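yo

u said u wanted the structure for the complex thing, so here. seqs first:
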Amino acid sequence: MNEMIQKAKEFGDKLYYSFFRHGFDNTGLTKSKIMFSNVLLHIQPVKIHKRSVKFKTTMGLGLITFYLFLILSVTGVLLMFHYVPSTAIGPDGLPDAYSRMLNLRSNVFWGGFLRNMHRWAAHGMVAFVALHMLRVYLAGAHRGGREFNWVIGCILGLLTVFLSYTGYLLPWDQLAFWGVKVGTEIAKIAPGGALIRGILLGDSDVGSEALIRFYVLHVAVLPAVMGFLIAVHFFRIRKDGGLARPADTSKEKQIPDEEFGEVKNNSVFKSARSYKLVEIVKGNEPKVNEETDQMMFAWPKLIIRELIVLVGVVAFLSLISVLFDAPLEGPADPNHPTNPSKAPWYFLGLQELVSYHGFIGGIVIPGIMAGGVMFLPYIEIFMETFTKTYRKNIPGVWFARERNLENALFIGMYLFMLALIIIGVYFRGENWAIIYPWEPTVGGGH
Amino acid sequence: MPKEKKEGKSRRELITMGSAFAVMGIAAAGTGGALFKYMFPVVSYGTPQKFLVPVADLPDVGDELIFEDMKVVLRRQSESEIAAISLVCTHLGCTVNRVETGFQCPCHGSQYDTDGLVVGGPAPKTLAWLEIKSVPGGQLEIDTATSLPEGTFFPAA
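structre next:
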């Protein structure tokens, strides 16, 4: 009998070690192995700085944005099983794409829920991209060798908006049609915009060709580009030495060691973070032995925190998706604009600007803003180099006093856009006239 | 002469690398151009630019007829004069609504008078007046791609 138990245990061990190459004891070696022997975990470093897990450092904004991207990918692929990008009129007298929406909502089990989740996650992702960018800027984390990663982040932000925008058309309802119609007309104002518009729409106007092009962009081209750039974005954070932080963190109050559990050091190396051969190579990268007492193992505290955020995001989105239905208006009717015709909320600031002046509001101001924000770190470097206004930059510190001017301007720009969006969403009624939000509007449908 | 040798090597390298990059650059430019042409629409599947109206269907004097699909309003000024005005807003291409004072755009609030002249909102110019041609078979052909100054009337036959 004992022999049988012994053999079962041996078999079990062999089975286990064919899946995992590590135990779960408390040594640094095991904690390292867990991180680098798992394809999903190895994207993250074995050891991270203690301040990285503090809420104040990142507020988890970038992580939440990434999770929303994952949720959008999963729900998006599921929705594809039930969707047809066609404007042909079906037996029910409705365009195929639109009747698929009705089908999702009323017939398909879980269809409405998944559509809601996809829609709300998309809105959430646009919002969290903006919040993440604000956090990075106010904490000065876009400088100190990370300038190019800021540019990549800005491209990712633009891709997010473009993904939302291409997805916006797919339901082929009034909201979708007129939102996209107004957006592509703005493109016409730009020099060479008519060409881009032609390529985007595949026709002289928003129609069946535009739907199939937006669909391909939305489900294949843009997510692929985005996935690649996300990899670059993360990779560069790793290569830049993790999250931005001041050179000296010894005076910062950190979470005490006890909270991370005891780590047994069985290694013959005294250094808790060893690069072996690299340590004797000359040059200042990678940084070795810096503040080893401020470093901690990523396993398990970081991973658990990340999982908690994931569960939180999924739970919150599920709740929202159960409580609120994604909007769906009547089928697209090119002859009858809704009154008012409003673009998606993240474009309403732009639409508000456009309502004052087409070219200045639709091209000049947004162009300067997008370009200015994207190359902001380089503009800062340029100013510092050529005007001798040396400004001390402390990466990873919120509201550094030396950066008060920059931060105030950046916050000012956010407030300006926010104000425009709020006016566009709540204070614009029929015929784009100023109204109070509590006044009833006829808008939506005709 | 190790120095000369080095120089010669780097020249050869330069030529090799240069031609390699040139070939790749030409290939990339060609592919890009071809892709652009591939993506650019050659056929329009949307509504046609021109449409026909039988003379018999013309509205009475002082009346208007709205062609929703074509986004055109046909106005009979007098027994012999007609005009066609585009309902496409000159601001961002929304379809304007016919209201008592003229035309009004629901998208960004542009306002036009009855002749399509801008009286308010962001619209940069007057609504387009369209060319009307008389074609055989007692029909009139209205071309929505034209843009004539306001007050351009055409004979009603």
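Chain A touches chain B through 35 residues (CB under 8 Å). The longest helix of chain A spans residues 208-239.
cya
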